[in-house]
Design a protein that fits this description.
34% of the residues lie in helices and 25% in strands. The protein is of the alpha+beta class. It has one domain: Alpha-Beta Plaits, CATH 3.30.70. It has a four-stranded antiparallel β-sheet. The radius of gyration is 15 Å and the shape is globular. The protein starts with 7 loop residues before the first helix and ends in a 5-residue tail after the last strand.
Length: 130
């Protein structure tokens, strides 16, 4: 099964958790050979379109600053999934992340992201007290 963008149910579940808690997001992506056409990235490879999305994302004023902790290529050691790039990002709060997903300018950028991706996973992690 291919996954590109979060669905409404997943975002609603995220909203039910502590909005003030900091979160780390692990973003696993697999690029298309060529970006899907009709999203402003015609003629670009999937990787070029995804990096274009990243550049545009950095230009957004979301009212908070996220921190990229790590980004680079990935090799699967256990399992058979194949990812091109992994990015680990710290968001100040879950509330910031929820607000970002609802932002219309960010929503518009998701089309560019989707045009470049063949598949993805976005994994939310929060601190544990155990």
């Amino acid at each position: 099964m291919v996954h590109i963008n979060p669905d409404a149910e997943t975002l609603a579940q995220m909203e039910d958790r502590d909005p003030d808690e900091p979160v780390i997001m692990v973003n696993l992506v697999k690029f298309r050979d060529m970006a899907a056409e009709g999203f402003g990235v015609d003629g670009m490879t999937g990787q070029e379109a995804y990096y274009y999305y990243g550049k545009k994302f950095e230009e957004l004023d979301l009212g908070f600053v996220n921190e990229i902790l790590w980004a680079g290529p990935a090799e699967t050691i256990i399992g058979d999934e194949d990812w091109d790039t992994v990015t680990v990002i710290r968001y100040p709060t879950r509330g910031n992340l929820v607000t970002m997903f609802k932002n219309p300018d960010f929503q518009a950028l998701l089309r560019i992201r989707a045009a470049g991706l063949k598949d993805s996973r976005l994994i939310e992690m929060s601190p544990t007290t155990a």
